[in-house]
């Protein structure tokens, strides 16, 4: 069956929903079709490793069902896009349906990496979807020991939530500290301290060599020879852009869908947004961002570009957050691991640090210091001298 026309958005997450919403706000009156391989209405992912995992809410929908009716957005749920023909301007779905488009938006997000050499044992999981969060929560109800492999943001949040549920948690990270590659080791140490204070056994500078068990995982073996008991193993070693379905389409993929400054891909009438998209920045670098706030910023750019209108040229200071226990870690600007880090507050749990590059303030990271973090926005936007914030 071929259905036709208008703007087709492939993906059922934040980027897809924001794009559809912005299109209607911009008074676009043509057809909008949103194609998602998930059976759920589009939902928000940040709560999955936090409130949902801790059993505090199941309410994660980005918009109620009526929104899609009211806005005349056609939903194709449980429908994976399997290929794209950029000449015919059609997307083929797993059930054989073919959808024609005038403009196509790729918003397919990420697929968590697994560790191929590990056996496929019960109790070993990743966390990207609502169903995965519910399954992990259920396991946590009876588990005693969890091993979280990878101390990036998701690994740290999962460790915090499982610990809050009373599970014994070991957090294993081959880098010298949690979050070392994103925020550097100085702040990584403060994050490790936070977890240790809550009773998480943080093991850094060591990898995992083996998972043991028959049907269900029972033990995790580390490179230093330690053997850890585990009823649950969460693999949090990063994700890759979900682009397999674009193979052979002519859309250039290089660590994500390669886009210009407005989200236009290398194929005509094809755009990409969100975690899957690598946009060119003002300095000409391709940058792919895996954070929530970035999606709304991109939607504000891509929609006017698609409709041939002017986009706002406001300076955007990148922002993301991560909730671990009662501490909200916030990051404003573009700190990098090898920047000079000035820790200006550290009370043993909460902290505030400015990041300096070439004498200018390029970012601020706070743990439990929301007001202070947000106050630095103008200075970071202006790349003010570091002395201005110290
Ligand atoms: C557990 C977790 C916690 C997070 N916490 C934070 C946080 O605290 N702070 C923060 O800033 N960011 C956080 N993030 C990141 C944030 O959620 C993402 O940046 C955001 O979800 C990106 O939205 P997206 O629409 O690009 O991708 P996604 O939300 O991944 O949506 C992509 C959608 O496309 C669907 N799809 C994929 N392939 C196909 C296909 N072939 N056909 C049809 N549909 C397809 C997927 O199933 C999915 O529904 C978190 C992410 C996760 C997973």
TrEMBL record:
Report if keyword Zinc-finger is assigned: no
Instruction: Please give the Gene3D superfamilies that the UniProt record associates with this protein.
Output: 3.30.390.30, FAD/NAD(P)-binding domain
Domain FAD/NAD(P)-binding: start-end pairs: 7-299
Keyword Repeat attributed: no
List the GO terms this entry assigns under cellular component, sorted alphabetically: cytoplasm
Identify the keywords attached in UniProt to this record, alphabetized: FAD, Flavoprotein, Oxidoreductase
Domain of life, source organism: Bacteria
What is this protein's record name? Pyridine nucleotide-disulfide oxidoreductase
Q: Where is the Reductase C-terminal domain?
A: 319-386
Query: Which cofactor is essential here?
Result: FAD
Tell me which species this is from.
Mycolicibacterium madagascariense
GO molecular function list: oxidoreductase activity, acting on NAD(P)H
Quote the Pfam families the UniProt record gives. Pyr_redox_2, Reductase_C
